Amino acid sequence: EVQLVESGGGLVQPGGSLRLSCAASGFPFGSEAMTWVRQAPGKGAEWVSAINRSGGATNYADSVKGRFTISRDNAKNTLYLQMSSLRPEDTAVYYCTTGWRVVFGTYRGQGTQVTVSS
Known about the structure:
Helix content: under 10%
Strand content: over 45%
Order of helices and strands: EEEEEEEEEE
Low-confidence stretches: none
């Protein structure tokens, strides 16, 4: 059974940081590019950051460039998103999904809520 389980979300003040994790199982994680996607209340989903299979190539949406860092540990079957300088507009449910720069790929997790508010 394929599983993607996100964790690490929560409530943080503007300017703060969070680190999201996505634990993968049930498929060859190291053979898949991965993407973080977010969906804010009342808005459509948007891709945030993507990483290739080896971790050697990454890509970021303009809205998070310079503030977020995507990484992966293929030995641990885990994807990460380090988020810094968080803004209220970063408030959303964050999902991990398979694929490169996709909104939602073949597999996706249940999401983790990130709320940026004072």
